[in-house]
Amino acid sequence: MDWGMKNRLSRIIRPETGRTVMLAVDHGYFLGPTSGLEDPAKTIEPLVKYADCLMLTRGVLRSSVDTSVDVPIMLRVSGGTSVLGNLADEGTTVSIRDAIRMNVSGVAMSIFVGSELERKSLLGLADLINEAQEYGIPVLAVTAVGKDMNRDARYLSLACRIAAELGAHVVKTYYCEDFEKVVKTCPVPVVIAGGKKIPEREAVELAYNAVSRGAAGVDMGRNIFQSEHPVAMIKTVREIVHKDLDPVKAWDLFNTLINEKATSAK
Ligand code: R5P
Prior knowledge:
- The chain is α/β, with parallel strands linked by helices.
- Helices cover 46% and strands 15% of the residues.
- It has a single domain, classed as Alpha-Beta Barrel (TIM Barrel).
- The chain has helices at 3-12, 28-31, 40-47, 58-64, 96-101, 118-134, 153-166, 179-184, 200-212, 222-225, 230-243, 247-265; strands spanning 20-24, 53-57, 73-76, 78-79, 91-92, 106-111, 139-143, 170-173, 190-193, 217-220.
- The strands form 2 sheets. An 8-stranded parallel barrel has the order 1-2-3-6-7-8-9-10, surrounded by 6 helices.
- The protein binds ribose-5-phosphate (R5P).
- Residues 24, 26-27, 55, 110, 142, 193-195, 219-223 line the site of ribose-5-phosphate (R5P).
């Protein structure tokens, strides 16, 4: 692996712990102005200082993130479909030249294993990796799950392993029962998406379960920015990911942070 590639990867996954807290705010690329991201700048600003990496699209990066921000960027470069259409029909939306121009640390693309467009999406990932490799840019493969697909260890292991075999440097997937199997059979770091908003206490447990079973961290969106207390949530998730804070202590911390905020506002 060349120096540039290693350097970018070490910006995404913190070398001190081998883990990362990526803040995912790329949802608008197929969901439009989803809840909590109606005004991306307003959502991102208070949270970004607690993120190891920011995952978003070119449009939101340009319009809603200050150029002086000190955070590595994971740029989503796939899209072209919406929640109203066939999501698996995504293609590449950003050239590597433009990604480099934006000084990104990595590029991300979804794959749709098991869909009728599986071949197209996997070869699209391979093309992106080939191109990104030329410039030392790591690729994050996102294992997308269709409505009628099982999010079980068998399916997610299949999808993660295929992404790694094609050359993805990091894979993002979902937490599931027997998650250890997914991690053990994937030769590159695996991070988990948070998925739909769930109660904060469950999200805390999800993050803990994932890292304690081998995840290299989280790429979490809705369970942070749709929380009533997004800053407390991302700070708590950081402690879980980087310090293995157990769910009981993490829940205490979350509540302490909320109370501190309420007291200082009085
Ligand atoms: C979905 O494909 C997007 O890439 C999100 O970045 C991803 O799902 C993570 O966000 P969340 O934690 O909200 O699921």
